[in-house]
Specification:
3 strands; Muramoyl-pentapeptide Carboxypeptidase, domain 1
Length: about 210
Amino acid sequence: MRRKNISNNNFRINRKMTNKGYKNVYGYNPNSSIVRKGNTGEDVERIQSYLVKAAKIYQELPVVVEDGIYDESTENAVKCFQRLNFLHETGYVDRFTLNKLRYVANTDISGMYRKYENEPYNKSDNIIKEGSVGKYVLALQKYINQLALKYAVIHKLKEDGIFGPKTKNSVLEMQHLFKLDEDGIVGDITWNTLYNAITGKSINDEMSD
């Protein structure tokens, strides 16, 4: 059975035969899917769109234009994104960078502070500590990592949504830096301090708008 490939610049829709029949795998072909400086087209524009969305979470990301041209500014933004996410800082987009870009681009950090979109902010939903897991812990780790870029005393974390000893240690470092009660527990005051340090706004003010 011949393999049929529908090419779209560097990415492919790869139709291959498996024991369950044809399987479509969009977005990655291990031999030819790397997108790099000099490439153009829809796939580059898609990557740039992910970078623009990711910049809402990572303020350090350089601004890119969604023009479908993989130029130096796009390469620099990719390198910055890779560095922030502990990926190999290559400047090109491979399978690992693409998957992380997709994930981050579809993450709504502001929505992590309430269970339902139109439900008022509930402080009790967001009190987390060592042993907690889930989206609030993931949001915490992202904020901690952004602060770590500015303050060397705060250690970076693996963004896995698990509140373990390392996450607690970074919380203690952050609380000490901002002269908060050093209990390793992330409650209303710690959340607001983190949010204000990153965005210059208060969570409570955001939720009352």
